[in-house]
């Protein structure tokens, strides 16, 4: 099987490529990635000899057309992925998330190639802290930020291309991932690397916001389950029942890194900050037989701390620029 992975030099895509090379010798992976500020070819250095890497933009229609024509399956991870950046400068989000997805859909339509679309639970907006509900594939779309609205737009393009043009497509909407190779702009790596540098963690607002954490390896086994056994046209929600509020995440990181549990700072809140995400992944479990393997969030965090301690050469080059960007946002 020949798989085209867009965004394979980013966090989830790179973990997906590692897992695929490790566990699926029958699969040849081609990565298409523009190497934006968020992409790093070094994230693929361990598997470089086993894959084909193409540096390019997913809005480059001739390039995309050629690569899609050489693939059996396209798995589309590439995106502008960070909410805070989307509030400062939304255009790259429209370009990559909307125009890029359109470009891929037109290519898979021309070539009749199977397409899996990676998306986010943020398309559903947010839940109240005391709401017993979780997101399902019937929850109405209600995105809050430029990031989540462009991801919602891309999901709707996929649904239309499946229905109107018969594209062989599936969609997954996953909750917050953590694990190795995540950019230091994101919550957990930002706090781990701050603590390594002797800087206090920074919590937005009151720290009450809840995210539904899943290890990136579990996200990626679910993606393979959908690619292999998912029903064309369906949307699958991916989550591992990992709801934790941000304050508790920071307290756990502080404890695991040998600091007092209150050694963090509250900083100004993210405008439009979603309060809570929660995923009902029962369809994925019951219909596709998927189960997450990372049972303990605390153990997963400890392993992630170890990874950032052992791989300072990977994250250090981006740390100062990331913090300089946050300084301009007052966060
Ligand atoms: P990331 O920002 O770490 O990586 C994105 C990758 O896409 C980078 O390698 C970047 O170079 C590449 N890219 C960006 N624009 C491109 C373009 N125009 N052409 C080609 N490549 C381009 O993102 P991530 O956290 O790994 O997220 C991957 C996907 O998963 C995204 O679609 C995101 O919406 C989705 N998702 C992420 C999470 C999460 O918690 N991180 C959760 C659910 C869904
Ligand atoms: O839910 C899935 C989404 O999860 C993905 O679609 C996005 O690509 C991914 O970035 C993530 O979005 P969030 O906005 O939830 O993730 P982030 O890591 O930016 O922040 C997680 C929570 O932590 C959020 O409530 C904001 C808060 N936060 C973040 C940072 C960077 C802080 O309190 N302090 C921080 O320094």
From TrEMBL:
CDD domains: dTDP_GD_SDR_e
Catalytic activity, reaction form: dTDP-alpha-D-glucose = dTDP-4-dehydro-6-deoxy-alpha-D-glucose + H2O
Domain of life: Bacteria
Cofactor names: NAD(+)
Entry-linked Pfam families: GDP_Man_Dehyd
Known EC number: 4.2.1.46
Boundaries of every NAD(P)-binding domain copy: 4-300
Alphabetized UniProt keyword annotations: Lyase, NAD
Protein name as it appears in the record: dTDP-glucose 4,6-dehydratase
């Amino acid at each position: 099987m020949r798989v085209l992975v867009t965004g394979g030099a980013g966090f989830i895509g790179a973990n997906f490529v590692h897992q695929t090379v490790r566990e699926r010798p029958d699969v040849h992976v081609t990565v298409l990635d523009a190497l934006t500020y968020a992409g790093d070819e070094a994230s693929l250095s361990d598997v470089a000899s086993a894959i084909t890497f193409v540096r390019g933009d997913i809005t480059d229609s001739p390039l995309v057309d050629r690569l899609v024509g050489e693939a059996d399956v396209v798995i589309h991870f590439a995106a502008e992925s960070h909410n805070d950046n989307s509030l400062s400068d939304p255009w790259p989000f429209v370009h990559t998330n909307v125009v890029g997805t359109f470009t891929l859909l037109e290519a898979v339509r021309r070539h009749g190639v199977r397409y899996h679309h990676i998306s986010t639970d943020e398309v559903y907006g947010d839940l109240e802290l005391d709401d017993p509900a979780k997101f399902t594939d019937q929850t109405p779309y209600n995105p809050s930020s430029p990031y989540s609205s462009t991801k919602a737009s891309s999901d709707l393009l996929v649904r239309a291309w499946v229905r109107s043009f018969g594209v062989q497509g599936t969609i997954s909407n996953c909750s917050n991932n953590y694990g190795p190779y995540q950019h230091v702009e994101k919550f957990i790596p930002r706090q781990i690397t701050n603590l390594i540098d002797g800087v206090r963690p920074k919590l937005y607002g009151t720290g009450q916001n809840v995210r539904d954490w899943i290890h990136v390896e579990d996200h990626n086994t679910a993606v393979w389950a959908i690619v292999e056994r998912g029903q064309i046209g369906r949307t699958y929600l991916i989550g591992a029942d990992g709801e934790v509020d941000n304050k508790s995440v920071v307290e756990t990181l502080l404890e695991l890194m040998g600091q007092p549990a209150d050694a963090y700072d509250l900083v100004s809140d993210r405008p439009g900050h979603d309060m809570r995400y929660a995923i009902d992944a029962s369809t994925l479990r019951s219909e596709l037989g998927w189960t997450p393997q990372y049972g303990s969030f605390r153990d997963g965090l400890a392993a992630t701390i170890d990874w950032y301690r052992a791989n300072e050469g990977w994250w250090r080059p981006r740390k100062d620029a990331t913090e300089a960007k946050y300084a301009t946002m007052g966060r």
